[in-house]
Amino acid sequence: MPTIPPLQKLLALCTLSLLLAGCDQSEVSAPAPELSFAESFQEQLIQAQPGDVIEVPAGVHEFTRSLSLTVPGVTIQGAGMYASILSFKNQAQGAEGLLVSADDFIIQDVAIEDTVGDALKINESTNVTIRRVRTEWTRGANTENGAYGIYPVQTRNVLIEDSVAIGASDAGIYVGQSSQIIVRNSRAEFNVAGIEIENSTFADVYDNVATNNTGGILVFDLPNLPVQGGQATRVFNNEIYSNNTENFAPEGNIVGNVPPGTGLLVLANDNIEVFDNQFRDNKSVNIMIYSFALGGRTVEDPNYDPYPEQIYIHDNEYIGGGTVPGHAALKAWHAVSGLDSPNVVWGGLVKPGGSAENIICLGESGHTSFMDLKGGLNPNDVSYDTAPHNCSLPRLSQISFDIPGDD
Q1: Coil, strand or helix: which one is 63?
Q2: Rounded to whole angstroms, how far apart are CA atoms 56 and 79?
Q3: Which of 213, 229, 224 lies closest to 174, judged by CA?
Q4: Residue 362 burial (CB < 10 Å; 0-12/13-18/19+)?
Q5: Is residue 5 in a domain?
Q6: Which SS3 state, helix, strand or coil, does residue 222 take?
Q7: What is the pLDDT of residues 135-193, one digit of tens each?
Q8: Parent domain of 225
């Protein structure tokens, strides 16, 4: 005899009972509806325990408000940066896509798209791994895009690798006020700043591609921030080319001053080593180093040192570039000289009472083209003499810390 399924049997009994004496409907109530992935994902973030792995399945998952995580030791794992997509195109609440304030955090193989503000912000965390993550504003370069794509700030021991950042109205990959940083094997494209290390110490930026940004790679130190004294960054083995996108930063943003066509810009940072990179077709200038005070900008923060020092640039390859100088001082010089920007340009300002010795070192041979703007006040008074800069500085050390999954 065939077996009658329990639910069908119960329904049959209730139907019969209704004819006789009624039936208790609670016994056959429908199961509660399943949560959507968006609803269950935020719930998992809230209820997470250290050691949890939260899976993001393949597909486009739409969110209308920010996500957050405060529990340490959590991994967010997707199926691939082009497969598992957290979409915020209809975001109505919150300043970020995903905000994390937790140590020992790993996120990998996911994309975060079209956030109102920053895409992935990591705040005050230690031991952060961001691997194969894509942040993108899919409408392309637009002033209304969020400021930052991948955005660790006040972090320590942060790795960003094999990731992609597209369309940020400030910086695609940004690490600020942090220490012990590795950014490698990643691509930044169509951002105002492709990769930016700001007010940070001990960073390695290598094996990346920065292209089609306004500025390819920025190493900044700015005033009026809780953490200052940026230094000890190595920029090496990168491809930095065709960073000629018009600047689309919102008005008043400091990166709004970056001229389109900038390859590498070092501002008021110390102990920087730039080597084994290829610079190609950056129309304004391949490398520029200058003080925050260049152009008459005043500094009101008494704790801030606006002068770059000990910048060691050697063994890079330069192809083209410099045909459309964009910085105000470079424009004025170009108007009277008619020349293309040299590969390395220094603003020329020296700390009061200080020495120009070893501020910019180009190696012992000094083969690269160079210009000292001498403060940029007189476009006829510049120097192309590399002899004072035929020097070497101590090589900076490799950044190393324990990285999960890095054999």
Answers
A1: coil
A2: 7
A3: 213
A4: buried
A5: no
A6: coil
A7: 999 999 999 999 999 999 999 999 999 999 999 999 999 999 999 999 999 999 999 99
A8: 58-389
Which positions ≥6 away from 407 have C-beta within 8 Å? Answer: none
Per residue in 359-381, pLDDT (tens digit) is 999 997 767 999 999 999 999 99
| CB-side neighbour CA atoms (13 Å) of 68 | 9
Residue 103 domain flag? yes
Q: For 323-347, b where at least 16 C-beta lie within 10 A, e where not — what string?
A: ebbbbebbebbbeeeeebbbbbbbb
Instruction: Give the integer Cα–Cα distance in Å for 215 and 52.
Output: 38
Residue found by looking up tokens 């269950």 in the block: 40
Rounded distance between C-alpha atoms, residue 104 and residue 69, angstroms: 12
> Band of the pLDDT at 129, cuts 50, 70, 90?
very high
* 402 within some domain: no
Percent of the chain with pLDDT over 70: 91
Burial class (CB in 10 A: 0-12, 13-18, 19+), 250: middle
What is the CATH number for 72?
2.160.20
Is 134 in contact with 164 (CB distance < 8 Å)? yes
For the chain, the residue count is: 407
Q: Is residue 309 part of a domain?
A: yes
Residue 23's pLDDT is 41
357 pLDDT more than 70 = yes
Provide the CA 153 distance to its chain's centre, in angstroms: 10
Cα 167–chain centre separation = 11
Give me 337's structure tokens: 């000289």
For CA atoms 257, 258, 261, 262, the dihedral sign is positive
| Confidence band of 213 (pLDDT split at 50, 70, 90) | very high
* CA–CA distance, 368 with 184 (Å, rounded to integer): 26
The DSSP 8-state label assigned to residue 389 in this structure reads G
Model-wide pTM > 0.85: yes
Q: Do residues 210 and 243 lie in contact, with contact meaning Cβ atoms separated by under 8 Å?
A: yes
Q: How many folded domains does the chain comprise?
A: 1
